[in-house]
Amino acid sequence: MISVPMEWKERFDLRRFFSGEKAVDGPIRLTHRRVFIVPNRRGFGLALLLAIQFLAAVNYSNNLAFILTFLLAGIAMQSTLYAFRNLAGLSVRRGKAPPVFAGEPARFELHLDNPSGIHRLGLGARLAGSATTIRFDVAPGATATLVLHAETGKRGWLPLPTVTFDTCFPLGLFRAWSPINLRQRALVYPRPAPAGIEPPVIPELSAGTRPSHGEEEDFYGFAGYRPGDPLKRIHWKGVAKGQGVHVKQYAGGETAELALDWQYTPGADIEARLSRLCRWVLDAEAAGTPYSLRLPGIAIPRGLGETHRARCLEALALFGP
Description:
Blueprint: H1 8-11, H2 16-19, E1 28-29, E2 36-39, H3 41-60, H4 63-87, E3 91-94, E4 100-101, E5 106-113, E6 120-127, E7 134-138, E8 143-150, E9 156-159, E10 163-167, E11 174-180, E12 185-189, E13 202-205, E14 218-224, H5 236-240, E15 246-251, E16 254-261, H6 270-287, E17 291-295, E18 298-303, H7 306-317
Parallel strand pairs: 4-12, 16-17
Antiparallel strand pairs: 1-3, 2-11, 3-5, 5-8, 6-7, 6-10, 9-12, 10-11, 13-16, 14-15, 17-18
Helix pairs in contact: 3-4, 6-7
């Protein structure tokens, strides 16, 4: 469990009550140092009611009113212990945070362990800046898995915002809460540009030799069209007859590679170019077309598949200073 010594200055820093302590890798145990409790609106309302009732009991010297006042006050004070105990002792671990595209909500997975024999009821979890609170219970000795969503606006690494766990159990008069900071982050890919612009095709020579004159004209068959194939090789007569889009294949030393190159990518600014390259990567993967990616200072060789896709999208997400 993570327990970092604190200086006196940090202990009395008011920001700790709302933003939590420094981020750590975890797991984090919710101890007395991390759990805070104050009356909520109902609690203050009950306190005002008890004060009025106490003054009335004093004014009229009514013993029953005294008994009722002190009984309700005792029950309210006892509920603070239950509210604190409902959070104290829980352990929070970080889970998965899969990559997403800009504009999609990032998914942060957290595991909440309850090692005690107490049934934790009416718990809540909320990310800083979010208006949504997830409500859940944790059985004795069980683990609750939570998925919290954070908004994404730009590409790059998105750190997990402060997570606040709270409860008003059992009477709803006091709110106990514990803000924590786990060192977790999700990778945000660029927002894919709309489809429409085809990527350039850069021919490369195999075996390092150039085909002799007439080799490329040695026709041997057709293949299904893939994004990036030269338009001059499309079998247009077959298209006109409704036979689908096919590409003529020639025997020769030349092979065509779908090269996604920063230099030849249209776009008004950096983000527009990255969005366009992101779209081309997704289209190439969907079509099963091998492709390479070239960025300033980065060259990813030709490939295909989930690993290659993730490598290219990560390079786009982290491009720049």
